[in-house]
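Postdoc handover notes: sequence design on the structure in folder B. Input tokens:
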């Protein structure tokens, strides 16, 4: 197509060109393949390429809202039958998915073309994408920086322009954190809104939700139209929505809303001034639009939320390690996974069923507190992260920490570490940079990260907005309005473009 610039279009824009026969799906696939081969060596975003399958699919008759649009899936939970799905771990290198995930099935019906899978940290456990087996993914805005995690590979693929949309999921911020670091739009839906089956009825006890990372608000909204709906394997019900998220994302809010905001870390740690300024700039704009704005903290205890999140985190890691027996044909050992993963599993084994149940009760308590809060306030706004993107390797354990982790792992001293207060130390170290996102995972609320600020060095900074459960429609309306504002950051300013 003469004068066609692939990167100028979002996913819906590309799909419209296909529908009007201005471009063929195979042309889009070849463009994405060329960009992958050109840019991926710099970023290490894509770890499994499915070029021939993509070409074959592109030559078929495709239907659906996103017919012909190339995209990547995340290398965890988003299975394609017969394809590898490693979850960033060498333990799964010989594993092949036994069936499509429900998420993947719905994407197929929407007409997308799968190009491959993106890099993740081992078992999607941390907020940086630096798995030992595949190596680190780098941020397209600054190759010395992380794109975040666990959807870091997907974020880098979208932010660099390889694809306009990529699969992601979010169990503690794994959509919103990479969106913030890479200048993208990222929405975590309400618990139960999108499918997690058929192999599971809940992911991370309901903390994790499937969706996408995008450059435009409307792509995310349209994809949620395709993904949401009843799932027979799903463990959770969700407030119904009978409209179109795409349509509502283009509608103005139409009324003045009450908005609460805070720039304080819920666990009492420092917050970078640029991350705070992104919020303050946003609420000033919203106030100028006539909305009522109050500076007020969420009515929950941040440290309790952090501990209850980590209790789930430890337990889920222990369960993941136990389930490796089905993959390996034997019980997993410390040599099968990364040392930190093994340590987290030991902490999970040292966690009692009583502690686990009490932590889930804390989730329910926080959910009620936030639902009550949203009876007064339509939105709760915070920084997405407390600090801009870290340097690659910056959050790696030190040599002494690695020695301790290795020793503890070999001796199986998870219980002793818990009694010594290691959980509090892990909470502070791991959540200091990203303390804002876990709340919505535990309460089940929808939350989004908006690209509304940059540091003086040009690194993207995200602004998080939360709403009551089931109110993705309100979030999309707000995002659609802000996308037209002067403070919205255009991802095409990315230096790799």
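Designed sequence:
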């Amino acid at each position: 197509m003469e004068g066609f610039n692939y990167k100028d279009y979002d996913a819906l824009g590309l799909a419209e060109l296909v529908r009007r026969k201005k471009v063929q799906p195979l042309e889009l696939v070849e463009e994405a393949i060329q960009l992958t081969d050109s840019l991926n060596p710099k970023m290490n975003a894509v770890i499994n390429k499915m070029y021939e399958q993509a070409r074959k699919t592109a030559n078929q008759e495709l239907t659906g809202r996103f017919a012909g649009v190339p995209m990547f899936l995340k290398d965890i939970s988003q299975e394609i039958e017969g394809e590898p799905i490693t979850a960033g771990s060498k333990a799964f290198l010989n594993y092949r998915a036994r069936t499509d995930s429900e998420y993947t099935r719905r994407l197929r019906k929407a007409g997308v073309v799968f190009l491959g899978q993106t890099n993740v940290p081992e078992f999607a456990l941390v907020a940086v994408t630096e798995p030992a087996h595949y190596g680190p993914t780098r941020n397209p805005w600054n190759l010395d920086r992380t794109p975040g995690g666990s959807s870091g590979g997907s974020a880098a693929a979208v932010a660099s322009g390889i694809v306009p949309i990529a699969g992601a999921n979010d169990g503690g911020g794994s959509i919103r954190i990479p969106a913030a670091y890479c200048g993208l739009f990222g929405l975590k839906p309400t618990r139960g809104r999108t499918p997690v089956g058929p192999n599971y009825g809940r992911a991370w006890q309901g903390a994790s939700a499937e969706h996408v990372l995008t450059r435009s608000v409307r792509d995310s909204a349209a994809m949620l139209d395709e993904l949401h709906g009843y799932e027979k394997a799903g463990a959770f019900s969700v407030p119904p929505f009978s409209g179109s998220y795409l349509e509502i994302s283009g509608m103005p809010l139409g009324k003045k809303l009450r908005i609460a905001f805070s720039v304080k870390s819920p666990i009492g740690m420092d917050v970078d001034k640029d991350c705070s300024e992104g919020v303050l700039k946003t609420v000033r704009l919203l106030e100028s639009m006539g909305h009522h704005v109050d500076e007020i903290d969420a009515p929950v205890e941040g440290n309790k939320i952090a501990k209850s999140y980590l209790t789930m985190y430890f337990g889920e890691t222990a369960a993941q390690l136990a389930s490796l027996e089905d993959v390996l044909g034997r019980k997993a050992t410390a040599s099968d996974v990364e040392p930190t993963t093994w340590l987290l599993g030991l902490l999970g084994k040292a966690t009692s069923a009583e502690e686990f149940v009490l932590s889930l009760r804390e989730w329910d308590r926080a959910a009620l507190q936030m639902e009550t809060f949203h009876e007064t306030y339509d939105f709760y706004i915070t920084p997405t992260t407390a600090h801009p993107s870290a340097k690659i390797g910056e959050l790696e354990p030190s040599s002494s920490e690695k020695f301790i982790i290795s020793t503890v792992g070999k001796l199986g001293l998870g219980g002793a570490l818990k009694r010594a207060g290691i959980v509090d130390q892990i909470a502070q170290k791991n959540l200091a940079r990203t303390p804002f996102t876990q709340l919505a995972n535990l309460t089940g609320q929808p939350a989004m990260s908006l690209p509304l600020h940059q540091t003086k060095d040009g690194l993207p900074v995200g602004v998080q907005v939360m709403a009551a459960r089931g109110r993705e429609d309100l979030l999309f309306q707000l995002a659609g309005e802000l996308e037209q504002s002067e403070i919205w950051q255009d991802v095409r300013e990315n230096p790799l473009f």
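Context for whoever picks this up: The radius of gyration is 21 Å. Don't rerun without checking with the PI first.
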